[in-house]
Design goal:
The chain is α/β, with parallel strands linked by helices and 981 residues long. It has 43 helices and 17 strands. The longest helix is centred in the N-terminal third of the chain and has 31 residues.
Amino acid sequence: MPVTGFSSDSLQSELVALIHPALVTEFSQSLELLQEKSTEELYGRLSDIDSDRKQAWARVWSLSPFVADYCARNPDFFVELVASDNYLVSKSEDEFRQQLQSMVEEVTDEASLMSVLRRFRQQQMCRIVWRDFTRQADMDETVRDMTYLADSCIDIALAWIYRDCCQKLGTPMRQNADGSKVKQSMSVIGMGKLGAHELNVSSDIDLIFTFAQKGETEGPGRTVDNQAFFIRVGQRLINVLDRTTGEGFVFRVDMRLRPYGQSGALALSFSAMEEYYQDQGREWERYAMVKARMVAGDKDQGENLMVALQPFVYRKYIDFSVIESLRDMKRMIAREVRRKGMEDNIKLGDGGIREIEFIAQAFQLIRGGRDLNLRTRELRQVFVALIENDLMPVTAVDELRHAYQFLRNVEHAVQGIRDQQTQMLPTDKVNRLRVARVMGFDDWDDFAEVLSMHRARVSAHFADVIAEDEETEAARTRHDDCWQLVWSGEIDDLKCQEILSGQGVANPTRFAERLRNLKQSKAVLMMQTQSRERLDRFMPILLEAIVQVANAEVTLERVLMLVESVLRRTAYLVLLYENPGALEQLVKLCSVSPWIAEQVAGTPLLLDELLNAESLYTPPRKSELIDELSQQLLRIPEEDLEEIMDVLRLFKKAHVLRVAASELANTLPLMKVSDYLTWIAEAMLDKVVQIAWQMLVGKHGYPQKAPGVPCELEFLVVGYGKVGGIELGYGSDLDLVFIHDVPTHLSTDGDRSIDNAVFFIRLGQKIIHILNAQMGSGQLYEVDMRLRPSGNAGLLVTSLQAFEKYQENDAWTWEHQALVRARPIAGGARLAQKFQAVRGRIVGKQREIDKLRDEVSAMRYKMRDNLGTKVIGGAKPEVFHIKHDAGGIVDIEFIVQFCVLAYGYTHPALCRWSDNIRILEEIGRAGILPVEKTEQLKQAYITLRSIIHKRALQNESAKVGIDTLLDQRQLITDVWNTLFL
């Protein structure tokens, strides 16, 4: 029987004493309703709960009339909620699903299904709000529980409806690759906060319905085509979830994010989805798909679709075009906020939740094509990636993280009061008090002060990332006054040339003609409207930047190579438009180096390197290179070799660009330039060896060094030539030799075992493939393996024992010369030490000096005849080849190699190094040549190599005028004659 005399009960007095006086009236009404619906037994259980639970009861009922009303009307549930230990605890996704599944098992009709779902939803909502308002759950757990609740309701309702539809309409089928047929279910994509596991307390759910294949249902009765079947399933699912009955609703369902919006079919096949997003997908749909997740139905098949849609969401290039779309969306939202007076909307107003989401998703869409750790649905993980990738200062990310948590808690407070889908701050005093109390403040003013602080911080960061800088835009407008006229063609040729001359262009006719040729080119005339608008907006600021450099006409030609290469990918123009500093760096570098202009035009992704001038001119050291490369590769699945190869190529190009920029800016001397270029190659080789090794081991197991004893990396890459001598240039290939140190009569220990010798040959082939393969991103390095024992006729990978034997007994003198510049580059450390010992013994062995002198000089004269400047009819040559002619770089290299091979036996320090500079220093210390001469040779060597480097950046050969570098050539010739004549 109902409880009587409840209003005067001591329990009521105890509870009322715990709440604010302004909240007593509605709280007391709920208590009276509980009295009316309750029994003596239930009341007794409520009276016996401890003081902590009574305090929580008073807090939640006074702050959430929604919870109070449902609990008062359902006292059995309320007693279980507050008096037992089963409800107010954290729940896993499986627990949500199992509890609902047990409730649905006896359901036989749709009306019963709807009733069960609504009862389950209301009870879980009470539990979630209770835990949130008492802070038993933090914001992360609240949104997670709401997502688990939605996922469970959608999936279990869909399964019931699918079975029912199959009985009435037949079972939809799809065809496997082998032609066999299997049944298929619908896949449900959750968008927005549902997809990101961030659903708020009283949220609608954005869904998209899809299915694997078209076809027809099969069954004993009526059949329909698959699309009609799944549309019917979708309609019933929406009705079951969305319709408001006497028991409420489950979730409001919004289907407007599906392809073609409200006018589109309710369910589409995977192929139709792919076709839509590929051909018609809009920028805002990319934004929406960032959080998309398979939430119900056939998730395994659905994941295939999600993978196929990744290229639509995340572009391989740095895509600043998304900034335009986000600005447009923000402007549209701002207009709506002003029109409806929603300035106090904590989601859409200034400094609200949507601005934080825009900041995060701007970085995701701009850089997610390259930075895989940005490809995450959850905003919390995006914050982590922003710090890891150094995209925002840690303090800024922390402010955004704290603001997001605060604003989401406010959202839950506002919505949890009456289970209303609103983000508007209340205007009445009672509900303001409720929100303040939920948020831990005594009154509204204190809460509002902290809220304003968070919103101001969010607004500031939003302006930094997305909002247009007013000064920059004003400057652009001023530039447009002049350069818009030049680019648009709205003025005659005479006026155009007058403007160009006034801006300091030396040859205005040629300058204007080049612009006209671009405008009238087929590629420009066929551009789509949006792309042409981007070009027209970009060109005036480009022209303004170009006339700031001395060689404007030449620079224009070089930069237009890039412009023409990206006419079908104008997001790159947006990048430069949005980042004036990057445009300034581009123009500056192109003005001084056609080589850099060609690199950027060929690989526009390199524009990303121009965004940070500080890092552009400070290339990282070797350890930093390896760490950075490792971090990038960690984000790529090990089996995706093509993507790994692309990342390696772009990484190399980006860092070589940074070295070139530093050399042109005179912030790196020649020796450091060569160091950096060599470090880049070493980092590449180190990773390539690791990747190839893991692939071969994964396939065949480890090579065995003794029966049953697998070996680690008993493999070595030896660098010869420029990479061995730490003297790489911008276009250098790699002279390599591969060595192993494992018995060849044994085999690997995997299920697909092969001989050790075969394993290492395949390992070498895989390494060469990764390095040599021509891809869309180019070639990593061209590899030359001709210096291995027996040259092209020899084994690709040689055992250390065979290598030493060959060098001792069969190698020519020129091969020992090459060995002087050899050193371990990548592979096992133990084997590297053993190789160094072998190299030391070979180059340092005692030789007959006169015979050596004859062989070295004969080889040098042969090289001069083949590679040096040809003299015709005794005439004086017009050019000097810095590398190959007499008095050039190769003469110094041969001088060094001769000294090592001739005197290494008596002066072992000569054998320690592989680079010419340090060997020359040892030659001086040993007294083989006067120290003064070796110092002069060092400076001559550095001068000649520096000129070759600089000429390479100008796309110029190593040939200079015959009267150039006379002092250095004479010095080198004199030393040569001293040693060899």
